[in-house]
Amino acid sequence: MNLQHNLVGANDPNLYQRGMNTNLRGLNTQFGTDFGINDKNNKIINNSKEIYNKYDVIPGNELQFKYINKPHKLVVSFTSNSSLNLNESFKDVVSVKLLNGILQETPSGNTTDASLFINLSITELNNVYSTSNGGSLLNSFSTLEYDKTIDNDRTTENAAGTVVNDKVNIYKNKYEDIRYFDPPLNSLSQLNVAVYGETGTTAPGSSYKCKLEFMVETKEKLRVY
After folding, report:
1. How far is CA 104 from CA 16, 48, 60, 168, 187, in A?
2. Domain span including residue 156
3. Which of 34, 49, 102, 107 has the greatest count of CB atoms below 10 A from its CB?
């Protein structure tokens, strides 16, 4: 039996061809000129995410993520100027942001006697500049602005027969104050807090309650999707 006519000779011009071989069907032609998406040099489509997305050739199934500084929520409350020891120390702190701050002041006497603002000092975070006679504004961290006065509409007396104040003034932060650390702060384990009236260096009113919410970012990285 003569099988010579069933074989392709090595010198067949259709077997070896530079560039696109129209006699062959495969990846090159299916994703090439037949679909009009190969480039002007007759190359297979570029191996790039933009081309994949444009022609929906290869679906991307990997989750996209990025790295951010690890955030920590910190909430403290106090009723007097004091040192607050945190239950956990934060290492390599890059920033501390005041998200929300609210102070309830009970004025002295049965009057409103509200200040325009309350100065908030936190020794570890103070970074506010002011004038040389700025008083408690100088080297403070934030100001809590007067928001409203609540009148409980009741008249009570203490054991001595003195009328007890039933009005309270509310102060809130209007902006997100932030303190950056470069290089990062090695450790943050306590906050030395104090509040002062707008004109003096004493605590406002006869008594107060204050709550502060912070976002503490550390150098440790967190992967988010």
Report:
1. 88, 59, 54, 6, 31
2. 66-224
3. 107
32 and 136, same domain (yes or no): no
Segment 50-99, tens digit of pLDDT: 665 666 555 566 788 899 999 999 999 999 999 999 999 999 999 999 99
Q: What does the CA dihedral 159, 160, 162, 163 come to, rounded to 10 degrees? A: 10
Write the CB contacts of 161 (distance below 8 Å, at least 6 apart in sequence): none
Kindly report the three-state secondary structure assignment for every residue of 126-149: CCCCCCCCCHHHCCCCEEEEEEEE
Residue 172 lies in a domain: yes
The helix/strand/coil state of 35 is coil
What distance in Å separates the CA atoms of residue 195 and residue 210, rounded to the nearest whole number?
9
CATH at residue 79? 2.60.120
19 and 76 in a single domain? The answer is no
- In whole angstroms, give the CA distance from residue 156 to residue 159: 10
Query: Which pTM does this prediction carry?
Result: 0.67
